[in-house]
Amino acid sequence: MKVKRTRKRKIDREKLRQAVAEKPDAYLRELAEQFACTEQAVFYMLRNLGITLKKNPSRTASGLRKNERSSGPG
Hints:
The protein is an all-alpha fold and 74 residues long. The protein contains three helices and no strands. The protein is elongated and about 70 Å long. 7% of the residues are buried.
């Protein structure tokens, strides 16, 4: 039986996962500077890790979420 081995990469998966956990709002360029690589490399590694864009709650036409609307009098 063959042993599945991963090749050495420029970006360490666990360090990247930890960096995103510490600062989830970091831009790709900030992460790229931290790991001394390109933004594209960070993007592909995040995609491989299953980390995608931050999801915002859906907004209504008035710009407020349904649960943020204040109910009027009576």
